[in-house]
Amino acid sequence: MNKKILSAVLTGAMAATILGVGASAADLNLIVAHNQTSEENPYAYGIKKFKEVVEELSGGAIEVTLHHGTLGENESELIEKLEMGAASMVVASPGFMTSIGVPEVDMFSLEYLFDSFDHWSTCLDGEFGDAMKQVITEKTGNRFRVMGYWSSSVRDVYAKQAVTCPDDLKGLKIRTQSSQVQMDFFQGCGAIPTSVAWGELYQGLQQGVVDGAENDYTNLMLKDHHKTDNGKYISETHHDFTTRLLLMSGAFYDSLTDEQKGWIDEAVVAATEEERAVTMQMFEESKQKCIEDGAIITENADIDIAAFKAIAEPIQDKFAEDNNMTEYLQMVRDAAK
After folding, report:
1. Taking the CA of residue 191 as centre, how many other CA atoms within 13 Å lie in the half-sphere pointing to its CB?
2. What one-character-per-residue DSSP string does 12-66 give?
3. How many whole angstroms separate alpha carbon 139 and alpha carbon 173?
4. DSSP of 131-142, one letter per residue?
5. What is the pTM assigned to this prediction?
């Protein structure tokens, strides 16, 4: 069998699995995935709630198979499987879209864009969130449809020393996300943004490849980063109230019946509420676990947030101007008033 025929057969088989052709008694079989291997993770609770609700609402007409990191620990793998039809819905950070011609999505990556969880939810559940969904659908040619906005909590700096102001970051190699605006922010603080794969970061901290990193309490705790010498000082910079996207192929969604869409939409609302509630609960639980394990915490009240915002806001302004997003940035700022 030549490669083209084999590829067509495999793609058809995967699509048949999702659409329920010969897969089971259900009319529709959905494969839902995230990249975290631990099921003690907000994403896991969210997709479990989706499965529970959509199967109940549909009376078994929809069945859901869940993957907790088993379709890939890298989000790029999940996106590839979503586009191939090997996954129906995935959780992913927005940044990958910048490489496929949607620079506007880096709006979500701007540091200090949101002041609190309340500010974040007000924006994402309101005019700003609706506008960004439309941008993503249009700019990707309906390749991706945002089903819901999820969070992986708020990100802080953790390193070999406490960080209370930008000067404390000078000269430190900090593992950051690959977003250009985020790297610009850390460079503005005097740090050296460094790329290390998530699965290799524990070793990188342990061996001094990096002097620190930034992430939320739950994810750094689950990977034991706070138990390394270069991760034990956690400073509550709260620089990024994170946005994660629950994505489905727009074309796949459009192919569903109105009844199926209704069940899925209602289940997404329930799943989103669950994911966010667990995120908030795990923030406190994970912070306490880090303290019990010996991490040294610098509380948010002891951080010079104004100094960090003075670096972040010009980056926000330039990004908005360069990408015709000034109106969107103003929506967010107005919501904080």
Report:
1. 29
2. HHHHHHHHTTTT-SSSEEEEEEES-S-SSSHHHHHHHHHHHHHHHHTTTSEEEEE
3. 35
4. HHHHHHHHHTTT
5. 0.86
And the tokens for 235? 């400073």
What type of residue sits at position 233?
Y
pLDDT at 24: 54
Fill in the DSSP letter of residue 325: -
- Residue 145 phi, psi dihedral angles, 5° rounding: -120, 125
DSSP letter, residue 191 = -
Give the single-character DSSP code of 304. -
Q: What is the pLDDT of residues 264-286, one digit of tens each?
A: 999 999 999 999 999 999 999 99
Q: What's the farthest any 2 CA atoms get from each other in the chain?
A: 65
What are the tens digits of pLDDT across the range 59-92?
999 999 999 998 988 888 999 999 999 999 999 9
CA 222 distance to own-chain centroid = 16
CA distance 156 to 153: 10
The whole-angstrom separation of Cα 40 and Cα 186 is 30
Place of tokens 């490669």: 3
The answer to whether the CB of 246 falls within 8 A of the CB of 276 is no
CA 289/CA 6 separation, integer angstroms? 49
